[in-house]
Specification:
Layout lengths: L11 E3 L6 E4 L14 E3 L22 E6 L2 E6 L3 E2 H19 L4 E5 L5 E5 L10 H9 L1 H10 L4 E5 L6 E6 L6 E6 L5 E9 L6 E2 L1 E8 L25 H4 L1
Antiparallel strand pairs: 1-2, 2-3, 4-5, 6-13, 7-8, 9-10, 9-12, 10-11, 12-14
Helix pairs in contact: 1-2
Length: 244
């Protein structure tokens, strides 16, 4: 009698917690597949911070909403949004955040009649046409978005605590991949949630929500210190061949 041996990955029970998988074992001593003979936790259950929210939703029409939250700015986008709209929305978020937190400095000068006046010594960053692109590149979100949009990953979460390195979690519902990495120099940034479900290779994806919160110190707009993100180890392509 030939034993029926099934690959354990064909029998999986998925935990609702991202990255946690419980495999259902296979009895290889007979030609029948047993029930849940054994369960082995493949990853540690990690409780996300309270401010990290899962914002995967379904909407009938494309939506893009921007709202203020305390000293931060939140942008949410939903179903069937072109990729260009998502990129532009991120830029607009950064721009509006600077508009809200921009605090010019002044110095006292005198006009030709000896009258005292205040002259702005710091140029308004909103007048810089390259502001959005610079901020975008320094946050490395453009490169991140393009990479994520090409992969099978469906959920991208960054949990930040000001003053400490950020912890990134990337999970795939399809392949149940769980990866982590840290980012330094992000004391003033909070990227709360990034989620995307792309079922085809078109220029639109089915469900997407991004929540970006940029928090400045003492009410000032955030600095543009480069968080020095490294994606190569995080955004690995996962194929069927690697699993079967």
């Amino acid at each position: 009698m030939v034993s029926l041996i099934q690959h354990p990955r064909l029998f999986q029970e998925y935990s609702p917690v991202a990255g946690c998988r419980m495999d259902t074992g296979t009895d290889i001593t007979s030609n029948t597949v047993s029930g849940p003979a054994r369960k082995k936790r493949r990853c540690q259950r990690v409780a996300p911070p309270s401010y990290v929210k899962t914002l995967i939703k379904r909407e009938n029409d494309a939506q893009c909403t921007v709202s203020h939250a305390g000293r931060g700015l939140i942008i949410e986008m939903y179903q069937k949004i072109p990729k260009e709209m998502l990129l532009n929305a991120i830029c607009r978020t950064l721009w509006e955040t600077k508009e809200k937190f921009y605090a010019p400095t002044f110095e006292v000068q005198y006009d030709e009649f000896g009258r005292q006046q205040y002259v702005e010594t710091q140029s308004d960053p909103r007048e810089d046409s390259t502001l959005n692109l610079i901020a975008f590149q320094q946050l490395n979100l453009m490169d991140l978005y393009h990479k994520v949009s090409r992969e099978v990953f469906s959920c991208y979460n960054i949990a930040l605590t000001p003053g400490t390195p950020a912890q990134i979690t990337l999970a795939s519902e399809r392949y149940n991949v769980y990866k982590e990495m840290s980012i330094d120099n992000v004391a003033e940034y909070r990227v709360v949630n990034y989620g995307m479900l792309d079922n085809d290779d078109s220029d639109e994806f089915d469900t997407a929500v991004m929540t970006i919160e940029l928090v400045g110190r003492h009410g000032q707009h955030p600095s543009l210190a480069n968080p020095s993100m490294t994606h190569s180890a995080l955004l690995e392509t996962v194929t069927d061949e690697e699993f079967f």
